[in-house]
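Customer ticket, subject: "Can you confirm the structure for Transposase IS200-like domain-containing protein?"

Message body: Hello, I'm evaluating your service for our small team and ran a test protein. I'd like someone to confirm that this is what the system normally returns, since I don't have a reference to compare against.
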Amino acid sequence: MARRTRSCLLPLGAPRFLVHCVARCTRQLHMLADAGGGAASGGAAGCCEPAGLRKEILLARLEELVGVMAVEVIAFAVMDNHVHLVLRVSRAEAQRWSDEQVLQRWWRLHPLRDGYNRPREAAEEEVASALADAAFLAGCREKLASLSKFMQCFSQHAAERINKLEETGGPVWAGRFKSVLVKDLEQLVATMVYVDLNPFAAGVCETPEDGRHTSLAGRLGRDEPCGAEAADPADPAATRRSGRSGRSADREPGEAATPDGPRPPRRRPSGRWLRPLDESLERQRRRGHRPLADGEAVRAASVGTVAAGLSLRAYLRVLDAVARKLRKGKRRLAAGTAGVFERLGLEADAVAGRVLALAQRDGLLGTQPVAAGPLRRPRRLGQVAAS
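Agent reply: Thanks for trying us out. I re-ran your input and got the following:
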């Protein structure tokens, strides 16, 4: 039976939509695990790699793509042999870009190169010629808002880097990525929880918040990039240090090598580039205001967030409840385990205040379009948020 094309499964022409993507390593090999595990891990024996290097490469690539394309990451989990991504694709956002912005973003994604295969600046004649080519710009705009292009850039980059680390060739991913359309808020929350609980359910960590390379770790401020150079790429001091250390033509920007082996690429914590949760109700409550009741006002206050009413406090409580009820055969929290806020040693109000401060500092509130589609807020989620 012929497989159905992705255009039959997803509304690729819609202004925006949400999708859950899964990319698995070939033959279920643990090719994203630390090297040195031989055939079981897919790693090259004796290869000197710092812990978590391969997953750091994937997260750095995600951050780069989010900053260039009209695709946002809502949730992710990087496991040893597969990757989960919950993405928001917005063609409407790409349509608002000017031709100059489209060209700049496209050349950031595919930089021009000189005779030594090094990135170079475009000449004025090249810029003028590209801006005069309407068909070229239309194609670039379309691809910058394409789910398939996003996953291609993500998967291809990962495969090239992993094969280079192992000094070999061949496929890293098992065919095409799988995609499932997220149709409403209930499915969105369920998918986010499922993705964030992947390491816990697999027995990698003792509690959900101990997961290392997940969006939950980023939202809790527990995602600390590896390596001494894993600072904010916009930091001038970090840029100067990188320039002094030198780069070779075959090394990715932001990634350095040491005599002992490769070093993780510089990146920001994932909480800085994930699509934020909605803290508008928490913000009003802390200011002493009555929570909004009008639907339009609620949506306006929640612009740029995952979904109206889905705060970190509500999400953590949903996740904690699900972690206690995972099906047989999967790890789950015992009935006597302390609550998520007690395990974290934090008060719910303190967590909400910290998220608000970070969101306001980074300009993540009220700067982007509303979440995809007419997402309805189920009564169940409202009860959790009020508990």
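A couple of notes from the result: Residues 75 and 254 are 24 Å apart (CA to CA). Residues 36-46, 236-251, 358-387 have pLDDT under 50 and may be disordered. Feel free to reply with more questions.
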